[in-house]
Amino acid sequence: MSSRIPLEVARVLRLGRPPEIWFKPALSVVVAVAPPNLTLVALDRLDLAMYTMAGSLCALYAHNRPYAARARTLAWVLLGMLGGLAAALLAASLTGSAVVLVTVGAVLAAVQKVLCDATRIGPPGNVILTFVSSAALFVPQTLAEIPGHLALGAAAGAWAWLVGMAPGLLRPHGPERRATATALRAAATYAESVREHTRAAAEHDHTDSTNAATALSAARHALLGAGRATAARQALGRLLDRAEIALAAPADADPDLLRAWARDLRGTRPVPLVDDLTLLRGEPVLRDPLWARVRPLGRLAVRTALGCAFAGYASLALGVGRPYWALVTAASLYQASLTQTWGRGVQRVVGNLLGVFLFAALVPLAHTGGLALVLCCAALNFGAEALIGRNYWLGSVCVTPMALLITEFAGFQDPGRLIGERVLDTIVGALVGLLAALAVPDRARARVVRSGRGTPRTLAGAEHREVPHPDQRTQSDTTEGVRP
After folding, report:
1. How many Cβ atoms are within 10 Å of 339's Cβ, its own excluded?
2. For residue 484, cis peptide bond before it (omega within 30 degrees of 0)
3. Cα separation, 57 vs 197, whole angstroms
């Protein structure tokens, strides 16, 4: 057993390949965050940056969605962000009891977790919402100030919405083209693994089939959410038919042709034209109503609320002035299975501990003035988005110093105390969060995760297969997005 633990930790910390569009969310969040914060620097009101950051961080979401769906998703994320911020500011203005505020933060975290999982919002999921609302609970506030602070968040959020939608002006079918190309490449890989008839290929055959089926499902969902069926989208649908045929009959597929079609989808070149096989498709999957998706998540809500609450209480008992860090750490752990939750805890602790060293190195530069502080935060935003797709812990190395610097928007603080509190809260939040996951297991959900593996179905029934929605995959699989 003792020899397996280092191997398991090494597996959890292993770096993967960067996502295909890693640079797009990285650039988007910088463009969304920098102008509002630089405006506040010019006005000498950097103390208000927490509220503009709440709206700006909405730019982290929905980068893989077609623009019609992205517009709706970003609007709902902004409303959810402002709703959580409003509840936190109201609680902060009505009470100064840290225990009450931690309790409110835990309840908000549970609601945010359940809604993000039920709506399949995708990475970065609930953690950004919980970070903003939890931090706002411990900012001195009056009732009269709340409307103005919410207005700042709404204005920055509107700018983030424009930033997220702007690429559609140049490449309106970009997300659907990328999803289709990914499905074609995955189908080609699966076809090759079946045709090679080697032991190594047989070992990877199951993984290749699952990856191909998931990629195909993601592409189908992308086309369903893309809006009006233009000629380009119809042509993409016909390419997906070819990918589906390759999954059903891999021995007869031509991997080179599938990859050639995928290459042709780069940039703005015309979509390759193939014969229409519409009659072979199944009916599209109908999504369950929201209440039906929320109902099975009751145990997850209890686990999240208890874990966050007791992490915050433990932090208060240890004399930490910012218990919301422990609360957010606990909220960030919960994945679709206990094994994934444990892995996320390891990633979180390693990334945060390395991140405090980076914060210590950046403090002398950041403390030279408000402009330097904002620019350091923007650079860390970019680094977090650029790296977190490789592994959660690597992105956390940038997220941790960014979260620490955000606390200094209202005034520079003792870096030694900030580092000590962050390390303590990280360890407390991870330990208490894992204990809550053990105390309130969700065996039914874990069985769904384990049974979600399978081989591709035939073409006629593939659209009815219970393949996870592309935004329902766990954050262990899709780690795109900043997680403070």
Report:
1. 14
2. no
3. 48
CB burial of residue 205 (10 Å; 0-12, 13-18, 19+):
middle
* pLDDT in the model for residue 341: 85
Q: What's the CA gap between 170 and 99, in Å, rounded?
A: 50
CA distance 432 to 59: 31
Kindly write down the DSSP assignment for every residue of 340-395, as one continuous string. HHHHHHHHHHHHHHHHHHHHHHHHHHHTT-HHHHHHHHHHHHHHHHHHTTT-HHHH
The enclosing H or E element of 212 equals: helix 199-224
Helices (H) and strands (E) in the chain, counts: 19, 0
**Other residues' Cβ atoms within 10 Å of the Cβ of residue 195:** 14
User: Is the predicted pLDDT of residue 280 greater than 60, yes or no?
Assistant: no
The pLDDT tens digits of the residues spanning 55-79 come to 999 999 998 888 988 999 999 999 9
295, with CB counted inside 10 A (0-12, 13-18, 19+), is exposed
Q: Which amino acid is residue 219, in one-letter code? A: A
Helix 415-439 vs helix 392-406: crossing angle, to nearest 10: 130
pTM of the model: 0.82
What whole-number distance in Å separates Cα of residue 65 and Cα of residue 83? Answer: 23
Q: Is 431 helix (H, G, I), strand (E, B) or coil?
A: helix
Q: How far is CA 403 from its chain centroid?
A: 17
Is pLDDT of 329 > 60? Answer: yes
Residue that is written with structure tokens 């870096």 in the block: 415
Q: Would you state the structure tokens that stand for residue 233, as one six-digit string?
A: 């989208």
Tokens of 409: 């928007």
Residue 132 φ/ψ, nearest 5 degrees: -65, -50
